[in-house]
Amino acid sequence: MKDKLTLTRRDFIRTTAASSVALGWLGAGQAPKVYAAEAAKPALLGGTPVHQGGWISWPQWREAWEPELLKVWRSCHWFRGSAGHVAEFERGYAKLLGAKRCLATASGTTALIVSLHVMDVDAGDEVIVSPYTFIASYNSILANMALPVFADTDPATLTVDPASIESRITERTRAIMPVHIFGMPCDMDPIMAIARKHKLAVVEDACQAWLAEYKGRKCGTIGDLGCFSFQESKHIPSGEGGAITGMSEELIDKCDSYHNCGRAVGTNKGSGSFTRGNNYRMTQAQAVLLMQQFDKLVKETEVRRANADYLSANLGKIPGITPVRLPENSRPVWHLYSFRYDAEKFNGLSREKFTRAMGAEGVPCGGVYREQYYDGLLDEAIASRGFKRLWSAERLKAYRDSFQELKGNKQVCETTVSFGQNMLLADRSAMDDILEAIRKIQAHSAALAKA
Ligand SMILES: Cc1ncc(COP(=O)(O)O)c(C=O)c1O
Fold first, then answer.
1. How far apart are the CA of 205 and the centre of ligand 1, in A?
2. How confident is the model over 239-248, as a mean pLDDT?
3. Can you tell me the distance from the alpha carbon of 428 to that of 444, in angstroms, rounded to the nearest whole number?
């Protein structure tokens, strides 16, 4: 059962986008509103909500996309092999990212499954992964009959702490999967150095990080392969959909074969015409919908960035609110905008009550990921016949016990508060509303804590 506060990220995005009155495109740069913070009573205690009028709903539709989509449907060439749109999308997405190649897939999950397989993650191997992520990161490793071994989360960045990786490497470790969670780049230099030192593959989970940058390179082009999701909640959605990006022709050809029932592709001939593989293909209509959103993605990314920078600069001035620390020379894309909440600086007002009070002010927010390694799926995996065949009872027990070492991740799960990306597409005065709502709640936190 979901706890009250920790929605899944998708529920969370749906909640923040649902029942929203669509706002006009107001553009950033207007004069900020001026509020008398202490004067107003919190909405939860009967006052007037700070933010009125809702938020931009998500996903969005444009009538201008209809003719191209209709053409695809009317052509009756819908599957990947019957027309060129998917390949055209791949060229376009690779160009957008500065990747040498891109392969479209059915989803972000299948992009991860394919990438791990191609990087030779096999039954009985171990993959070091960030625990603070959507459950698909864990599941893609389990799908390859490998063990997701969790490095710890750095509470300052919410991404994997590179210093916690090396101690988790065993002779079975084949790969590292850093997750650029909420579109915030992981600190890739130390991660790549560890991978090179131990000859491990790096599969970037960039499923929330379209156009995010680390030291001048786009996330998804730094490791051996990078994986993206275009599921409905994402910044560039097509209902379902995914992509793998990389700088190696050979690796992407291997991904292509594996995602296309094992058919020989390019440099990947296999021993006959087939290698191992499954069907993880994208359809023509998904590709056409995605291509039409390239410009929108680029423009909206800049709006989100400008608003997030404004929030970070001002939230840092509120005691008890800590914006995330970003790796040097990195540019996140803010799939969610997150900060750490310290209840002590709010007269002991719990995070749950804080987010409820924010919601009443018209500013929906919440915690996102809980300590999912206790949710049962890993217990189910390690109790399975297959896993018992592949690992000793001692290893599986030590693995289960090691979850307790994830102190940074526990702290992050308990103290992080996030807003949906759609809120970052509003105008500057709406950002002032967010700030004002927090200040107002802080000013009245003693009363709210008692309520
Ligand atoms: C971090 C992360 N990894 C993997 C996935 C899986 O992507 P998909 O839902 O397209 O399978 C998602 C999607 O929500 C994600 O956010």
1. 8
2. 98
3. 24
Report whether 138 contacts 148 (CB < 8 A): yes
Centre of ligand 1 to C-alpha 83, Å, is 27
Nearest atom, ligand 1, residue 208 CA:
16
- Cα(140) to ligand 1 centroid in Å equals 10
In degrees, rounded to 5, the angle at the alpha carbon of residue 321 between the alpha carbons of residues 422 and 22 is 15
φ, ψ for residue 36, nearest 5 deg: -100, 90
Q: Is the C-beta atom of 229 inside 6 A of ligand 1? A: yes
The pLDDT, as a whole number, for residue 265 is 86
Of ligand 1's listed atoms, the one at least distance from the Cα of 240 is 10
Question: Nearest-CA neighbor of 132 among 323, 402, 408?
Answer: 408
State both tokens at 431.
């950002």
Instruction: Determine if ligand 1 sits within 6 Å of the CB of residue 191.
Output: no
Vertex 150 angle, CA 144 and 152, to 5°: 155
User: CA quadruple 380, 384, 390, 392: dihedral positive or negative?
Assistant: positive
Token pair 């390019």 is found at: 266
**Look-up of token digits 């919410």:** 158
Beta-carbon-side half-sphere exposure of residue 406 (alpha carbons within 13 Å) = 29
Of 384, 378, 366, the residue nearest 4 (C-alpha): 366
Distance from CA of residue 252 to its chain's centroid? 22
Residue 61: φ, ψ to 5°:
-120, 145
330 lines ligand 1 (CB under 6 A): no
For residue 416 and ligand 1, the question of a CB distance below 6 A is answered with no
Ligand 1 geometric centre to CA of 349 (Å): 32
Question: 133 CB less than 6 Å from ligand 1?
Answer: yes
Residue 38 pLDDT exceeds 50: no
Mutating to test ligand 1, I would choose from 10, 229, 418 the residue with most ligand atoms within 8 A of its C-beta, which is 229
Extended beta strands in 217-328, E state: 217-218, 225-229, 242-246, 321-323
Q: Is 440 exposed, middle or buried (0-12, 13-18, 19+ CB in 10 A)?
A: buried
Question: What tens digit of pLDDT does each residue of 86-132 get?
Answer: 999 999 999 999 999 999 999 999 999 999 999 999 999 999 999 99
Q: Judge whether 290 and 241 are in contact, CB under 8 Å.
A: yes
Asked whether 164 and 151 are in contact (CB, 8 A), the reply is yes
Using an 8 Å Cβ cutoff, are 201 and 255 in contact?
no
Pairing outcome for strands 217-218 and 213-214: antiparallel
